[in-house]
Every structure is written in structure tokens, then in C-alpha cells.
Amino acid sequence: MPKDRICLGRFGKVFGLKGEIYFNLYGSEDILRTTDEFYLENGTLLKVEKLGVGPDGRFVVKLLGYDTPESVETFVNQKVYVKGRSGKGDTYTTSELLEMDVIVNGQVVGRVLDLQGTDEAPFLLLEINGELRRAPFTREALSIDRVKKTITVSSEGFLV
After folding, report:
1. Are strands 90-92 and 85-87 parallel, antiparallel or unpaired?
2. Could you count the other beta carbons within 10 Å of the beta carbon of residue 71?
3. What one-character-per-residue DSSP string does the chain give?
4. Residue 102 and residue 126 in contact, taking contact as beta carbons nearer than 8 Å
5. Are 91 and 3 in contact (CB under 8 A)?
6. What is the torsion angle, in degrees rounded to the nearest 10, for the CA atoms of residue 100, residue 102, residue 108 and residue 110?
7. CA–CA separation, 82 vs 115, rounded Å?
8. Distance CA 107, CA 102 (A)
9. Pairing assessment for the beta strands 45-53 and 5-15 based on DSSP bridges
10. What would the pLDDT profile of 26-78 be if each residue is shown by its tens digit?
11. Residue 88 has pLDDT above 70, yes or no
12. Whose CB has fewer CB within 10 Å in the chain, the N or C terminal residue?
């Protein structure tokens, strides 16, 4: 499994007659609700056609191109991975970043609201002193401390 993949959960039992399958989420819902691609442990790419909630409150996923119960039966109990965003050689989930405080000039001045942009140009949406600001999600602009749950902006020049 490539280093940029994060285990999001595991497929459960087949649901219904249209090729839907239960999904047991390990992490945060924000990743599940914003991704349209899953990867299996063997690297197989699966496209998400539809995400819903079953009658018992569990997530139900419909995969593109899989339209019968038999077609998704092989996925039961398989781990599901998503592609993460990288920074300083590590991979971070959006939900993990949302828990972090933002430090500028040695002082906590705000919090992370979201990770946005594209894979080529990701940026953090921040609330700093009551204002919405952005910072590029790059090694040059940010230093992330998982233990302290902080993101230090290396220079105010990176804040837009």
C-alpha cells in the first residue's frame, strides 16, 4: 500500500439488491463525505457512485459499475483506503488538521477550518483573530506538530 493512503474503514455486509454495501467507518465522516475514490489493500481503485445511510444508521455505499449483490460480495470485510494529503513526508487527514491550533509569531492566533484546493495546490482555510485567511499547505509555509496539535505558519507572508 502506498504511503499516501489512509485506512478509512472496512466494507461490511451486502445491502439490498442494487450492489450496495455497508461501510464501517474508522475515521471522521468529513473524509468519507468528500471522497469519490476508494482503494482496496491490493491497490484496486473503486469509484463511489452514491453514499447514504441505511435503516439502522450505518453508512451504505454504492460503487460505480457494481450493480448486483454478487458483484460487491467479494468486498465484504475488506479494508478501504483513501488518498491522503501530504506535508513534511507525513500524511494528514482533514479531520486531524481541524483539531489543530494555528501559531503565528509564537502565539496561538486561530484554528484550522478546512483543507481545500487541489492535490497540486492544497491550502488551509484558517480563522485567525476572527478573520478568514489561507495558507499554502507546503513545507515552506507550515510546520505541523501532531503531539501538540499545532500548525506553525513560518511567516506572515504566507497568509493570504
Report:
1. antiparallel
2. 14
3. --TTEEEEEEEEEEETTTTEEEEEE-S-HHHHHH--EEEETT--EEEEEEEEE-TTS-EEEEETT--SHHHHGGGTT-EEEEEPEEETTEEE-HHHHHT-EEEETTEEEEEEEEEEE-SSSEEEEEEETTEEEEEE-STTTEEEETTTTEEEES-GGG--
4. yes
5. yes
6. -90
7. 15
8. 8
9. unpaired
10. 766 767 777 788 999 898 999 999 999 999 889 999 999 999 999 999 999 99
11. no
12. C
C-alpha cell at 95: 479531520
2 pLDDT tier (thresholds 50, 70, 90):
low
Query: What's the alpha-carbon Rg for the chain, to the nearest Å?
Result: 18
Contact 81, 8 (CB under 8 A): yes
The set of cell numbers assigned to 89 is 513526508
